[in-house]
Every structure is written in structure tokens, then in C-alpha cells.
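Lab notebook, design round three. We kept the backbone fixed and only want residue identities now. Task for the bench partner: fill in a sequence for the structure below.
Input C-alpha cells:
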């Protein structure tokens, strides 16, 4: 298992393990997912047909509507939750959904940003990922297929 120690910003800390879903395309939760299933329904996104549930999502930036955080929050309410969201820069709208998930449902979604663009060259969809953000450290462990 490879270990990366990456400097970045922790938005929501925790320790999670899961399978990576990686895209170099920006993503919107608003009309981009079906909150009832967790399936990605954005026909213009390469993730079409994938499911966010229990995945670690890597995408550069959020895009689209100001309701994106609420779409994410509805998915959380319906138990279709990504374990973590990693961006180059976290959209405040997505961050609001993550914060509200913790406040309203006591559900943590680990969130990180400002890790550098090379993260998308190092991690691929399907990699097993372990993220530790405790004590301000960001450790990412991953296995290649």
C-alpha cells in the first residue's frame, strides 16, 4: 500500500476508507445525482450511472446551482452518502451540505481541498483509499488495482 502525505486544507476531518471515484471534470450535486438512489444522473458527466454511496469522490470543483448543498443533504437524509469529497478548491455550496449533514444528522463526510492538481494524476477510479485527517495531518493510503 502506497502512502501519500499531502499538505492541504481540511474542511471536515475524520478517518475513512473506501473506493475512489475520480474525475477531472467539475461536478454538481444539483440535478447531478438522484438523492433516492445515489446514482449519478448528469448525462454530460463521465460518472453517469456511477453511484456515490460509500465512495471517496475526487473532482476539481463544484459547479452549478446554489442548491447543490441541499441535493447533497437530501442524499444524506436518504442514506446515499459519499465517505469523502476531495477538491482542488471546495465550493462553499458543497461545504454547506457537508456542514449541515453533521449538524442535522450527525453524519460526517470527510472533506479536503487545496491538495494540488497532481492528486488527479496519482489516484484512479477503483483505487482503495484510506484518508486520515486527524491532528491536521492528511495521509492518503492507496492501492493500485
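Proposed sequence:
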Amino acid at each position: 500500500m502506497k502512502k501519500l502525505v499531502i499538505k492541504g486544507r481540511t474542511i471536515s476531518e475524520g478517518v475513512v476508507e473506501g473506493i475512489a471515484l475520480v474525475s477531472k471534470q467539475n461536478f454538481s450535486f444539483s440535478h447531478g445525482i438522484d438523492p433516492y438512489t445515489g446514482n449519478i444522473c448528469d448525462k454530460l458527466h463521465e460518472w453517469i450511472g456511477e453511484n456515490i454511496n460509500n465512495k471517496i469522490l475526487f473532482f476539481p470543483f463544484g459547479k452549478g446551482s446554489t442548491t447543490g448543498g441541499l441535493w447533497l443533504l437530501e442524499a444524506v437524509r436518504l442514506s446515499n452518502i459519499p465517505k469523502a469529497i476531495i477538491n482542488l478548491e471546495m465550493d462553499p455550496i458543497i461545504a454547506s451540505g457537508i456542514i449541515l449533514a453533521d449538524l442535522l444528522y450527525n453524519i460526517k463526510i470527510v472533506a479536503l481541498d487545496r491538495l494540488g492538481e497532481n492528486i488527479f494524476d496519482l489516484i484512479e477510479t477503483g483505487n482503495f483509499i484510506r484518508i486520515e485527517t486527524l491532528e491536521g495531518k492528511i495521509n492518503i493510503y492507496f492501492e493500485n488495482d
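Keep this in mind before ordering anything: The chain has a mean pLDDT of 90.
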